[in-house]
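Pasting two entries for a bug report.
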Amino acid sequence: MMKKYIILTLLSFIAFSCEDFLDEEPIGFRTPTSFYQTEDEIDRALAGVYKRHRDLYGAGAGTMLRFGESRSDNTNIEITGDGGGIAEDELNEFTMISTNGNIGTFWTISYNAIARVNFLLANIDNVDYVVEERRDARLGEALFLRSALYFNLVRIYGDVPCIVNPGLTPDQILSDEFLERDPESEIYSSILEEAQEAIDFLPVTTDAPGRATRGAALMLKAKIHMTLQQYTEARSLLEEITTLGYSLLPNYSDVFFTKNHAEGIFELQFSPALDQGANYFSNFVPFSSGQDILGSNSNPNSRGNQYQPTQSIIDLYSDDDDRKAHNISNYIDANGIEYQWVSKFAFPFDQVQFNQQNINWQMYRYADALLMLAECYEQVGGGDPVAILEQIRERAGLDDPSLGADELADLEQTIADERRRELAFEAHRYFDLLRTGKLVEVMSSHGQDQIAQGQTVTANAYQDIRTVIGIPFAEVVEFGMEQTPGWE
């Protein structure tokens, strides 16, 4: 990986308390030369990386959910007449330009988290660990998180600066090296290497829920290989995951309404008790519902339902599918208008902390691993994809989980459809379409449907389905970085 430099913005010189894994209590300003002196300080710094990573999925920024679902055929945005969310409309309808706030937010949070990892890795060897395995675990966590962050960056922006060292001087931070975007091929090569290092360092289990484990790193590396359509390499990693003790929960709803369970391979931790609760649910309900759905301790997003389920995802479920009942609900407002909304995350809000839920985000879960393994078996052999699909469908409560003749005749599409049903609204669909080369075809057709139904608000909606997003306009103007062709 090319060595580059970046300044650690915001809290780079602040130490955090780590009595609880999620807890971050500022205790004073510290310089990079005076911090990272003890195991506790390494833990505090790592907690800050987890926090920034979580910010990509939470509703505060929540841009991972926007990229993964808004730009897919699973959802559209409720039209309320409120023009304040035009940036989300542009993202949803493929009319974004490089000044769109979602582009800048994702970039900034990601590189802030990467910078924190870089400072940690540059200093961890200065710390004397009593138990060497503990040092290895922290190294593995840091490498896993940096690799995961770069994986998302390269999938969204294509060529990006590959920064692995901290910048301690203005000359380093503003050097020509920092301003260059490295080719996708180099980014993928580097993160595969780092993901393997994380696999080697990380333990199979941890006594602190939320910390990355060997299973999480295996899952990350498998996803990278799947993106590169390297199915044989992904298959062996996914098969190892099946030996590590994970299992499908008996009830689909429990996957989202309980925390740190047997299906969770890597869960982003949220806790109202620490004033760090989840709150993405408020983005999923109709605006006119007020507090009818959310209860008295939350309010709908001012733009209303930003992830309204499309008719195509609704029609994909059979009526006897438990996932349909859990994922999608109906609401009729005071004017008799009926709305369908995503109820997948409809867990009650905390009664003390306003607009916070005590649920985690399932970044990696076992059902996802099984479905990717089925895809590998279908592509390169080595196992039975049908048995895996029937296992997933049996948990979904289907009266007959076996595959029909038409489904068996086009197993590749059947697996894609099952992934869509199982993982709907979890920020996977866009990236599945992207890695399988179907994004332009599917989203062009989806766009035609949305236009015909009067469900678009921006000019030229869905007319240019671009598979790579431009880098933030500010990076071009302020630092002279080269913009992605077509995004100038």
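Entry 2 (this is the one that rendered wrong in the viewer):
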Amino acid sequence: MVVRKVRAEEQSRIMNRIIEGQGESTIPFLPLTPSETSIVSRGRNCVKSQPSRLSYSKEVYQDATSLECLLGYLYLEDCEGERFRMMADWVRGEILREDEE
């Protein structure tokens, strides 16, 4: 069960919900700030090709990488602040919501 939650496909699904602003978590969604949007874009664009050992698409890999970049950025920039905690709680809520379905 834990492996399923950290797979690129799951990270991609969550990143798409963040981008679309359509999360169904019980925690209110936080729209991305301009600097966060830039980090997501940079993380997505750093993927030039799909690793050959992986069975999913380049787009899934790009989305997963951009989510990892966003959370890493928020942790480094705002570890003690509210923004990182709120985003981490939102992502956790999305994962738990998926488990309930």
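Dev reply: Rendering is fixed now. As a check, the viewer should reflect this: DSSP finds five helices and no strands in the chain.
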